[in-house]
Amino acid sequence: MVDHDLVDRVFAERRFDAVFHLAAYAAEGLSHFVKRFNYTTNLLGSINLINAAVNVGTVRLFVFTSSIAVYGPGQLPMRESTTPQPVDPYGIAKYAVELDLQEARHLFGLNFVVFRPHNVYGERQHIGDRYRNVIGIFMNQILKHEPMTVFGDGEQTRAFTHVSDVAPLIARCVERPGTWNQVFNVGADAPCTLNALATAVAKAMGVPPRTVHLDPRTEVVHAFADHDKTRAAFGDLIRGVSLEEGLARTAAWVRSAGAGVPRTSPALEVTKNLPRTWG
Fold it and tell me: E strand or H helix at 112, and its extent?
């Protein structure tokens, strides 16, 4: 996405009528320490796609996956009507793209749908990344006979969402013009603590829970969203996969796939206040 010449060439050759932009480097905590990489990849890369979609003239809908990271702390439950106040570079980049899509709609007539998913997990996810996707991190640590690592006291809350309750909504919005030019939270309703999650993951993996608590890191402590608007628009597509069911399905795949290997991560640009386990 950061190669705008390549993006322009692909759009000109393929003449897309819809764009589904799900790509990002989605490590909220790490984004404080890789600001340049974050904004180049998540903001400028997205702008290259928006420019191309406008210029090619055939795109009738641009679908963008943002994040509930745009809300920031203390706005619970997070609602689409709430004014975003992101506190990490990842959330800032996502919200900037949302604003640019609104501008592109106003000036160029580019229709959009913005989804704000949260804590999505499931089969075929990359479990070797140590900076993001806590369920994958926990399961990978269990496969390697390591304790599950928890930052702080583990009483942070999140609502964890199986991918099967997210992907169909994104795929089908193109068929539902009534949802265009709107923003939707998408994800599970019930939050749980990281301590409770660790216990549930261990159960799904068939092992006793074993955790180690690390120094707290800078993060939003409690994050869960309201989904009334999403249910009204996409309720027929939402199964409501429980955490127990989703973890069981994911664990079965993880056991068959084996431990994940870390991929190349962006080089650190700032090391001040970096969590010691990330050094």
Answer: strand 112-117
Give rounded-to-5 percent helix, strand, coil for the chain: 45, 15, 40
Angle at 214 between CA 131 and CA 135, to 5 degrees: 40
Instruction: Take residue 134 and report the two structure tokens written for it.
Output: 């806590």
CA separation for the pair 82, 185 (Å, rounded): 11
Mapped onto helix, strand or coil, the DSSP state of residue 160 is coil
* d(C-alpha 112, C-alpha 180), whole Å: 6
pLDDT digits (tens, 9 = 90+) for 165-182: 999 999 999 999 999 999
Q: Is 261 helix (H, G, I), strand (E, B) or coil?
A: coil
Distance, in Å, from the CA atom of 267 to the CA atom of 235, rounded to the nearest integer, reads 42
Amino acid 175: pLDDT: 97
Phi/psi class of residue 273: alpha, beta or left (left: φ > 0; alpha: ψ in -120 to 50)?
left
pLDDT digits (tens, 9 = 90+) for 185-238: 999 999 999 999 999 999 999 999 999 999 998 888 898 899 999 999 999 999
Q: What is the pLDDT of residues 28-77, one digit of tens each?
A: 999 999 999 999 999 999 999 999 999 999 999 999 999 999 999 988 89
Q: Quick count: other Cβ atoms within 10 Å of Cβ 163?
A: 18
User: Half-sphere exposure of residue 133, counting CA atoms within 13 Å on the CB side?
Assistant: 24
CA–CA separation, 81 and 185 (whole Å)? 11
Could you tell me which residues come within 8 angstroms of residue 189 by beta carbon, excluding any fewer than 6 positions away? Answer: 159, 224, 227
**Whole-angstrom Cα distance, residue 184 to residue 132?**
23
